[in-house]
Amino acid sequence: MSINAYVTGYANVKKQKAASYLPPSCVLIDGGEFQFPVDEPPDPERLVMVLTTYGRFDYEGRPETPPYDSTFLSFDFTPVKATMVLKQIGPMRIDARMEMSYSDLFTTTVTYVRVPLIAQVTALEVNGVPLDVGPSCRTEKSLTSVEPDPATHPGDHVVLYGKAEQAIGEDVVGYTLLTGGPLAGKVTIPAFTGCGTGGEDLDPLLTASVSGPGNHIKQVQGQTCTPLVPVFETPETRGQCTEDLQPFQIPVAER
């Protein structure tokens, strides 16, 4: 049973001491159910269940975000405006672990989202003058995070982390896959390649201005919509889906 949701947020560019706004992007997520972990003995003090599922960005049928503008100062004095897209180049994997205490039914859920993403520049202005970056201006590989479990999850990819807590009878505080919430992480932006036409090499400009480690990302996911069993907005219920089965909730970016 597939679900969908919007996600939006900010991505810092540490070199520029600035952040780029990432517009609401649609994410399509495969269905999945929490199951008992197969490699752990039962815990006498808490119920433990795990979930693994997969998803992808969807913009006009392509696995990418909508285009967004990033404005910064190159070498601290030249204004640069880049129109960029984050392109998914491999599976988006979502792993969640839920633990519920038998004593008070307090629930904690930890979620990791892993996805390989390249940043592609589709348009560039330097000091107000448009420059032709060509069709293949992008980071030379995926943005990368420090992976907490590299043996299980090798390769270059972004890692975002979310945590939720819920007391019995109360709303969820934090992030779960179904209810949404904030996800955060840090990435290294690789060097750029393929930028420029007609013999003009723009790779050094973008690499010097943007590339490097320690760039904080904070994304906010909205409540998911389940098209097969949609929940519409009524005076008695919170809406999860619009009438055309899109996510009802459009999240607001947080810094």
How would you explain this protein's 3D organization?
This protein is mainly β and 255 residues long. The protein has a domain at 40-214. It contains 1 helix and 15 strands. A 9-stranded antiparallel beta sheet has the order 12-11-7-6-3-2-1-15-13, with no helix packed on it. Strands 4-5-8-9 form a 4-stranded antiparallel beta sheet. A two-stranded antiparallel sheet has the order 10-14. The longest helix has 8 residues, at 203-210.
Total E-strand runs: 15
H/I helix tally: 1
Straight-line N-to-C gap: 32 Å
Q: Give me the oligomer status.
A: single chain
The main sheet orders its strands as 12-11-7-6-3-2-1-15-13
What general outline do the C-alpha atoms trace? globular
Low-pLDDT residue intervals, each spanning 5 or more residues: none
Average of the residue pLDDT scores = 93
Rg, Å, rounded: 20 Å
Listing every helix as H and every strand as E from the N terminus to the C terminus, the arrangement reads EEEEEEEEEEEEEEHE
- What proportion of the residues form beta strands (DSSP E)? over 45%
Instruction: Kindly name the structural category.
Output: mainly beta
Residue share in helices?
under 10%
Largest sheet: 9 strands, antiparallel
SSE arrangement:
Layout: E1 3-13, E2 18-29, E3 46-57, E4 68-74, E5 78-88, E6 92-101, E7 107-115, E8 117-126, E9 129-131, E10 138-139, E11 158-166, E12 173-174, E13 181-189, E14 192-193, H1 203-210, E15 212-221
Antiparallel strand pairs: 1-2, 1-15, 2-3, 3-6, 4-5, 5-8, 6-7, 7-11, 8-9, 10-14, 11-12, 13-15
